[in-house]
Amino acid sequence: MTTGSRIIVALDYADARSATALVDRLRPSVCRLKVGKELFTAAGPEFVAMLVKRGFDIFLDLKFHDIPNTVAQSCKTAAGLGVWMLNVHALGGRAMMQAARDAIGTAPGRPRLIAVTVLTSMAETDLHEVGIDATPLEEALRLAALAKRCGLDGVVCAAFEAGAIRAHLGEAFLRVTPGIRLPEDSAEDQKRVMTPRQALESGSSYLVIGRPVTRAAQPLEVLARINAEVVLLENGK
């Protein structure tokens, strides 16, 4: 069972001003926040530190993928910002993931470290084009198992793979799922998407939700609706 909100709002903005305009309307009690490459490049670590100071749990989504020492030092620096979660690419391999895990330490307040498996924008044909002869599910399971053996806390995966990963690797191994859309939304550039209810029923631990919240006229109302659905599902309704 997770604690706190299971909704992570993706701050997919090009500048700090736009992101702050939304954050000013949110509360740490109703969601966590994700800062990705675009916003981090524009606003820098100072912006992340500001969000942490305001009480938000931050998922720093920079998908580190480099030689082990570079990734280790990057993760150590990110952990110093006080973030709640950060990630690496599982395709970086065992040595890289173990170096990242060792770099963030073992203290109780350390960030959760998760690994990206297969991007939700990729279908089986996309995997084949880059030399991976597997379905997205097969590849996600393989990489998730490797991440667990390396001591990581979980993975980023499509909601379609969350149930199988939970079944193979256990409830405690986190499944963080992007590609979440409300029933009335279009998939746009994502190829493997689910609604919040579908994703939770499929085994997601946390839902990464961007456009359905960030483009909403009343984002708090959208979050209240999703959080209410989470509570109903957790209560077996």
Please give a quick description of this structure.
The chain is α/β, with parallel strands linked by helices and about 240 residues long. It contains ten helices and eight strands.
Number of strand segments: 8
Number of helices: 10
Give the second-level CATH assignment, the architecture.
Alpha-Beta Barrel
CATH level 4 superfamily: Aldolase class I
Helix content: 40-55%
Structural class: alpha/beta
Estimate nothing, just give the exact number of structural domains: 1
Structure description:
Helices cover 45% and strands 16% of the residues. It has 237 residues and is of the alpha/beta class. It has a single domain (7-234), classed as TIM Barrel (Alpha-Beta Barrel), CATH 3.20.20. The chain has an 8-stranded parallel beta barrel with strand order 1-2-3-4-5-6-7-8, surrounded by 7 helices. β2 (32-36), α2 (37-53) and β3 form a beta-alpha-beta unit. The radius of gyration is 17 Å and the shape is globular. The two termini are 16 Å apart.
